[in-house]
Amino acid sequence: MVERSPWFDAFCHLMLVLGVAAMCLPLYYAVIAATHSLDDVLRVPMPLTPGKELLNNIQTALAQPDFVRQLINSVILAVGVTVVKIAASFTAAFAVTYFNYRFRALAFWMIFSTLMLPVEVRIVPTYEVAANVFAPLNWLLGGMIEVDLQWNLLNTYTGLIMPLAASATGTFLFRQLFLTVPDELLEAAKLDGAGPVQFARDVLWPISRTNVIALTVILFVYGWNQYLWPMLIITEPSMLTSVVGLAKTLPGVSDSVPHWHTAMASTLLISLAPILVVLVLQRWFVKGLVDAEK
Amino acid sequence: MGMVDIRGVEKSYDDVKVIHGINLSFAPNDFVVILGPSGCGKSTLLRMIAGLEQITAGEIAIDGRVVNKVEPRDRGIAMVFQNYALYPHMSVRENMSYGLKLARVDKGTIDAKVRQVAEILGLQALLDRRPGQLSGGQRQRVAMGRAIIREPKVFLFDEPLSNLDAKLRHQMRMELKRLHLRLNATSVLVTHDQVEAMSLASQLVLMNAGVVEQVGTPTQIYNEPATLFTAGFVGSLPMNFFPGCVNDGGNQLILENGTKLPMERDLRAHAGKKIVLGIRPDALRLVPSPSDGGQVFQGRLELAEDLGSLRLLHLRNSGGGFAVAVAADTAAEGTLHAAANERDLHLFDAVTERRI
Question: Which of A68, A190, B61, B128 has its CA 20 to 30 A from that of B95?
């Protein structure tokens, strides 16, 4: 849009500044709060300039019981979701794009329809399955024979990761990429003697590299920021993820003093991992979303 | 028995039959060119030889072995694709050696072969580049290298030159021919470009609408086209066609434009039949005046095309138009007369469209 008038320019800049402020002020508040002592933080209004207590607060945060353990849990969850989801969607997309079998379209659309059912929507049945993976089987067979198979995934990494990793976003992305790969490439590989596995490993996977990196960034942050599901299925403090653990350090009702200064220091520490992933991979991330390198 | 034998091969997609019973045999060391217009089934035939398409009926044998059920990699063939189909993420070296790597050939042998093939094709300096960093001609060469390194009995080329510009195409055409002579293998090339076909083929197969129209050397096909289709398709200047019939005496052609051509050939067997007469523009020459009853065509100059080495005059008379190729410096205007020798006249039955 080309519109040249000083008033319009000023208006645009004003809106931009407001937008930036709305986005960044909470973050600024968090950083500031992490640098003050408890007394300063609880003062009204809270000081808007940095204090001197940052290192102290960080030390206190690190000293919280299970804090480091919970960070590790978060890493396991985020990496697990990323790896499982990429592996599953790559193979699923490969299957629905390159193989001809009955019900192929049905399979694809069933995967696709799960896009409409995120974890939050199906959280009760998902919890039931996590509590006993064999529950649906028991129910199915219950009419015929007396069965009671048990496989409990509550308070396990598997139960934490699997429901979050099962979704269609990645499958769809890979399928769209595979559709742009010329058929002759597959035929050339066939003539070279490559079977489906070799073709997927030696040709498709390297071609998908930028897509994989973009997905890694998105999925890692997605996994890291999970709140509702981990809170539901994890009850042992040592298995909690940091995001949930952080929320639990703050009192829910006003029965004690909220330690905002250490909570914010923890927040900064917890944010480091996704920031690091984004910083390291962002160059490829943008490239992967913009151009499919062919 | 040839290197490649195609016996009664048919191909259908669902209910649509695209190839109707083809029988061909390619001798060892032949350079076979399959020529035909788009959609005639020539690429499908090539892909059936390669094993990339199922054969609906009939059988294909390579070096005496029926390969209908044999995997592409085990057929002893190599193929060069129109768009080269190089692996975009692999270097030239990896592109050429991928097949050998999958066949678990040891590294030393692979290296030696890559070096040897790179030398044949002049790719030594480019071995570590990616396809994206190469020009069209270089990619073409890498694609050929990937084929050569397999040491196949039969090379298959699917319109390999059509993505190149005119000058490079000419150069690569010569290179292709030189390579064929050097490699001692059977080559099968599919193209719709008849200049390419004429210049490369030792055996030319002309296809149309899923059937073989004619098989022969380029000279045979050019000089004695067996069907009306062949006559019209082969030759860089399109042939002139004149409908007409043979007179009752069998010694004269009466064309629909009114021209009467006395023939020395005995056509009594075809007396009274409807025919189509074909004459190539370069078989016609301008003559000063209509000699009495000779084989002369007459027409008014409508327009002239200068093609560099020659000039193409488009003449028109009451019965339609035709073209005459003359030397580039020929000046001409008004009503002109053109004559041809009897041996340059191609006669076709108007009903069966076969050569008389």
Answer: B61
